Amino acid sequence: MKALRTGVIGVGHLGRFHAQKYQKISQLQGVFDTDFARAEDVAKELGCAAFTSMEELLAQVDAISVVTPTIHHYAATLAAVAKGVHCLVEKPFTYSLAEADDLLLRARENGVLVAVGQIERAQVVMQHLRGLGFASPRYIEAERLAPFKPRSLDVDVIMDLMIHDLDLVMMLCGSRVAEVRAVGVAAVTEQADMANAWVTLGNGSVANLAASRVVREAARRMRIFWPDRYASVDFLLNRLTFYRKGPGAVPGIPGVLEEVVELAPQDALEEEIRSFLAAIAGQGSVLCTGQEGRDALDAALGVGQAVKRFLETSSQSSAKGS
Hints:
Layout: E1 5-9, H1 13-25, E2 27-32, H2 36-46, E3 49-50, H3 54-58, E4 63-66, H4 73-82, E5 86-90, H5 97-110, E6 114-117, H6 124-131, E7 139-145, H7 157-173, E8 177-185, E9 194-201, E10 206-212, E11 219-226, E12 229-234, E13 239-250, E14 253-261, H8 268-280, H9 290-321
Parallel strand pairs: 1-2, 1-4, 2-3, 4-5, 5-6, 7-10
Antiparallel strand pairs: 7-11, 8-9, 9-10, 11-12, 12-13, 13-14
């Protein structure tokens, strides 16, 4: 496969990692950031150019990653699509569904590939589980907790964290979210910092999702239930364990067989970018299409609206009681 010319728009904390991966597996032409000093630092580190404008960068590349704050995803991706440049856009895809729908339309019109960086799809545990080809699970529990980080405050905890699990639930079930019930708390910011959502999918599957960005210890876990077994996934420990009825000896659970799946570590971001570049060359598919990224955004917005209603109702109740 001919090495594609690549670049990155937005080289903050995460964008720098994108640039590192492109430098390793493609022809990294350069980077652009509104903080030009930041762009120069990354360019010096990786031996590429720091462009003074997005337009200059787009004229020199075949594919880019858009790793700006979410509010700028639409403008940056629109500019790239107009130039015929393929795009990997970090999650959430865009700030609104109208923006997402417009980008998908323009990408089709221009023959451009647009993928979305729902990176948990690239985790080796999830790729292995998806490859087993099981039927849709009936129930999923997920817990995604993270210490407070001020760099992600342009979005609430649903767009920051829970959107990952909403995307995985829809991917595993092969169905979109049909109904949402959710609660949340604005603990340290003006937006929801903790949320819990009960979602029902169009095929009848159900998921219970919890997310927080104000805990001391990180956790990223999921339990996936089928009629005859369930899987326990720990994304931080790269661990996948199956439990099913059988002659097992799981402490405290008689008649249950435990199977631990040993998986070699994998660089999820590198895998995501490799899949993106291979898809451009016609050698496979992206891990998350633009449409799937749009569906994840739709689900996250639905949860966000439910949480907003809960917060407004709680505020009104508090005011009446005071």
